[in-house]
Design a protein that fits this description.
Layout: H1 3-9, H2 27-35, H3 64-77, H4 83-101, H5 106-116, H6 119-128, H7 132-145, H8 149-159, H9 165-168
Helix pairs in contact: 1-3, 3-4, 3-5, 4-5, 4-7, 6-7
Length: about 170
C-alpha cells in the first residue's frame, strides 16, 4: 500500500458531506481516477476532472470532504504521478485554497491546516516538478498559505523560469 492509499483509507468518506449534496462515499474512486490520469489527459487545461461538484459545491463552497481531499492530494503528490495527474491535483488544491483563505468556517480552517502540512511538497513542486503549470499552481497555493514571506520570496527568485512571468514579478 502506498502513502496515497494509506491516507485515502484513513477517512470515513461515507460520513462526510460531498459537494454534490450527498455522502462522499463515492469520492475515493473519483480521487483515484484523478491520480491515475494518463499522459494525454487535458492537453494543458486545468480542472477538467470528475471532481467538479464533489470536492466543492457547484458554487465553490467547501464541504467536509474538501480538507480530506487536500490531505489525500498531498499524499498522492509524494508518489509517481503522470504530469496531468500532478497538474490537476495541484490545480484542485489551489481551487480549494482560494475560498478557504477567504472564508471563516471549520471546513475552511481544516483545508488550510491540511495544506500547511504539505508546504514542502508544494515547494518541491515549484522547484522541480514536471511542468510550469504545476509549478504555478503550487506557487499560487503557497502565496495563499505560507506565513514565512521571506522564504517564499527566496523561492520565487530561485525558481526563475519555472514560474510564469506574472508570478515571477508578483510582489510578495
Amino acid at each position: 500500500m502506498n502513502l496515497f492509499e494509506i491516507e485515502l483509507s484513513k477517512f470515513d468518506w461515507a460520513r462526510m458531506e460531498c459537494g454534490c449534496g450527498g455522502s462522499a462515499a463515492h469520492l475515493p474512486e473519483k480521487v483515484r481516477e484523478l491520480v491515475t490520469l494518463d499522459e494525454g489527459h487535458g492537453r494543458g487545461e486545468a480542472f477538467i476532472t470528475a471532481l467538479h461538484d464533489h470536492v466543492m459545491t457547484p458554487a465553490d463552497g467547501l464541504v467536509s470532504a474538501s480538507s480530506a481531499f487536500v490531505s489525500t492530494a498531498f499524499a498522492a503528490l509524494t508518489g509517481d504521478l503522470s504530469e496531468p495527474s500532478r497538474r490537476e491535483t495541484l490545480g484542485w488544491v489551489l481551487r480549494i485554497l482560494g475560498p478557504a483563505v477567504d472564508t471563516e468556517s471549520a471546513a475552511a480552517e481544516a483545508c488550510v491546516d491540511a495544506a500547511r502540512q504539505g508546504l514542502w511538497v508544494l515547494y518541491a513542486e515549484v522547484m522541480k516538478g514536471p511542468s510550469e503549470a504545476g509549478a504555478a499552481y503550487a506557487f499560487e497555493s503557497l502565496m495563499l498559505i505560507e506565513e514565512d514571506r521571506d522564504r517564499l520570496r527566496a523561492v520565487q527568485a530561485a525558481a526563475g523560469d519555472r514560474l510564469p512571468w506574472d508570478l515571477k514579478s508578483e510582489e510578495i
